[in-house]
Amino acid sequence: MEPRSPARIINTTGLRPLEPFHQVATYDTPTDLGNLDHLAASGQGSGGLRAGFRAGFRAWAAWQTGAMNSHRNLLGGPDPTYLQENEEAYALFGEKSGAPAEVAAAFPTFSLAWAALADEAFEGGRVVESYAYARTGYHRGLDSLRRAGWKGHGPIPWSHQANRGFLRCLAALGRAAGTINETEESERCWQFLKDSSEEAYAELKG
To answer: Among positive and negative, which fits the CA dihedral 102, 106, 112, 118?
Structure first.
């Protein structure tokens, strides 16, 4: 007996021959359900089959849309970075608030001490000294951020106490750089601060 073609096999079930894949593919976008209704109403099969096709496609569309939204969430910005608290350094900083140099010597990775030294020098008119202190604290802070998983960008919340030393050093560096006419560096620092924490920028820039 002569083998039946796929189209003839489909026709024995009462269905019209299936369209080529590249034609049907125009219907498989979850947002274009009008095309789905047109396809289901075009006579391919019984009413029950058409209704089932419509329901199945709508379920797939809902799943696909959810998957797409999840994919967008995964592609969102990086998570905030929170530096680890150094309780010993904070305790010493509280005891010796008037002597940040002692704290920096005891805890050289503690950016808050360098920020305090930078502020003290700037207020005393020692701008280059302030610049040097701020840059030291800035680089110490970058090292700490990288150890905390920071990838070079993303939020560094001002609300987290341990982040404030780095953010203050960044602001102090921008301030000192601007004062000695390192305009490009100053602009980069302020933009970095704003990108890292809008709250810190509002607090420290003004």
So the answer is: positive
**Structural domain boundaries in the chain:** 6-74, 87-205
The least confident of 28-32, 33-37, 129-133, 163-167 is 28-32
How far is the CA of 97 from the CAs of 102, 129, 165, in angstroms?
10, 19, 14
Could you tell me if 27 and 39 are in contact, meaning their C-beta atoms sit under 8 angstroms apart? yes
CATH architecture of 87-205: Alpha Horseshoe (1.25)
Cβ-based neighbour number of residue 180 at 10 Å: 13
Distance CA 37, CA 42 (A): 8
Confidence check: pLDDT of 133 > 50: yes
38 CA to centre of own chain: 41
Instruction: Return d(Cα 87, Cα 78) in angstroms, integer.
Output: 27
Give me the DSSP letters along 80-141. Answer: P--PPP-HHHHHHHHHTTT-HHHHHHH-TT-HHHHHHHHHHHHHTT-HHHHHHHHHHHHHHH
For the entire predicted model, the pTM comes to 0.64
Q: Which residue has the tokens 């700490």?
A: 144
Q: Name which of 145, 147, 150, 175 is nearest 162 in CA terms.
A: 145
> Whose structure tokens read 């070079």?
152
> Residue 160 corresponds to which amino acid?
H
What H or E segment, with its residue span, contains residue 182? none
